[in-house]
From TrEMBL:
Record keywords, A-Z: Membrane, Transmembrane, Transmembrane helix
Organism: Plectus sambesii
Protein name: Patched family protein
Membrane-spanning ranges: 189-208, 215-235, 247-266, 287-312, 318-345
PANTHER family (UniProt xref): PATCHED-RELATED (PTHR10796), SSD DOMAIN-CONTAINING PROTEIN (PTHR10796:SF108)
GO cellular component: cytoplasmic vesicle membrane; plasma membrane
GO biological process, one term: molting cycle, collagen and cuticulin-based cuticle
Length: 384
């Protein structure tokens, strides 16, 4: 699944705003500005190294290059060299004495006041020496109409700026919060899903009190969530905040279709055979499970008539979880439970009960009858 986000997903599809958003993609394909704020500008000895950093930023395939970059220092260097050449022509300096400095910066700002007055801060000491405090420049990108591409572009820019950390340069984008979310949504989804799954397992431990049963429930919940994610990917859904919220909701929602079946199976009468135990379990949970699932699905039907993507995605998630939950709760789990050795269903509980009995009662002849034959319980087999 592609980690991205489209703003139209949060608005009704027939709204004027949602209709206008695709048109804005043409603008981002041609012009995507990214402001770089430099909090510690380079001095005369660091100037060339700073330009190397800018060259790396402009070398990205999605960046236009020096022709579109609005960098104050490049144009100022030309101005400073021209001013120095005037001094050379008047015999006030030698051609080889040029050294880059910021002493002519105030005059340059005055001559280009409308262009740079808000992009630079500098101080002038009593000797007339100019110190540049901070400034910003504009890096222009292209072919960045997709939000995921803008997120990758921002990440790459940050990587270059991190290698030149002495300049304390930071990128600024109005949509940085959403772009950062796209960069972390995959890891956040995996982490959140695992934590939620463990929480569901912890709750199951309190009620089922059987290691095998808890493992089966946890595996079934994970299977439902993987199936949901696969079906959404197959349907063309993106890995965005909407999908992330729906997945976390599905983890908690799917426990209703798994825990009840396993709970009733392991709480059944010990003398029952696996088939009889399963029949008793389905008799207790099948019809309530069907009622709960169908009523939930019916409640979601009105949402299908809305035109907002986020709401439709939520309704579709509920439908998928109900369908897949039915399949796991009524078909997959019964097959798994009956395929497991019979001792898994009674061993933990019967042994746990016997630990509190007197020693003489360990050897009481308790026989379990199933499949028209008599067989000692697993605990008795181990003791006799």
């Amino acid at each position: 699944m592609r980690a991205t986000f489209e703003p139209y997903k949060t608005f009704p599809s027939d709204s004027s705003l949602a209709i206008s958003l695709p048109r804005a993609k043409r603008i981002y394909d041609e012009f995507t500005p990214l402001t770089i704020i430099v909090n510690r500008p380079p001095n005369a000895t660091e100037y060339r190294r700073f330009l190397n950093m800018v060259d790396e930023l402009e070398a990205f395939p999605t960046a236009y290059g020096p022709d579109r970059t609005q960098l104050l220092l490049r144009t100022y260097e030309k101005y400073d060299r021209a001013a120095f050449q005037v001094a050379v022509d008047w015999g006030e300096a030698k051609p080889d004495d040029y050294h880059f400095n910021y002493n002519n910066l105030p005059n340059y700002i005055k001559s280009n006041k409308e262009a740079f007055q808000n992009d630079v801060k500098f101080d002038v000491d009593q000797k007339g020496q100019v110190t540049l405090s901070s400034f910003s420049f504009l890096l222009v990108g292209r072919q960045l109409s997709e939000w995921c591409e803008r997120a990758v572009f921002l990440r790459n820019v940050r990587g270059v700026l991190a290698r030149y950390s002495d300049f304390q340069a930071l990128p600024y984008d109005l949509d940085a919060s959403l772009l950062d979310l796209m960069l972390t949504v995959k890891g956040s989804l995996i982490t959140s899903s695992i934590v939620t799954l463990f929480c569901m397992a912890a709750v199951c431990v309190l009620f089922i009190q059987n290691k095998i049963g808890v493992a089966i429930v946890t595996s079934a919940i994970a299977s439902i969530c993987f199936t949901l994610l696969g079906l959404q990917s197959w349907a063309g859904a993106d890995l965005d905040p909407v999908t992330m919220v729906n997945m976390l909701m599905a983890v908690g929602f799917s426990v209703d279709y798994t825990a009840h079946t396993v709970y009733h199976y392991y709480k059944g009468e010990e003398q029952l055979s696996p088939i009889d135990r399963l029949a008793s379990t389905l008799k207790a949970v099948a019809w309530p499970m069907i009622q709960a699932g169908l009523s939930t699905a019916i409640c979601m039907v009105p949402l299908m008539f809305l035109t907002t993507y986020a709401i439709l995605a939520f309704a579709k998630t509920v439908f998928i979880v109900v369908a897949v939950g039915f399949f796991h709760g009524l078909f997959v789990l019964p097959v798994v439970l009956t395929a497991l050795p019979y001792s898994f269903a009674v061993h933990d509980r019967c042994c746990r009960r016997r630990r509190n009995l007197p020693a003489k009662q360990y050897f009481i002849d308790e026989k379990l009858t199933y499949n028209d034959s008599e067989k000692l319980s697993p605990c008795t087999d181990n003791l006799l």
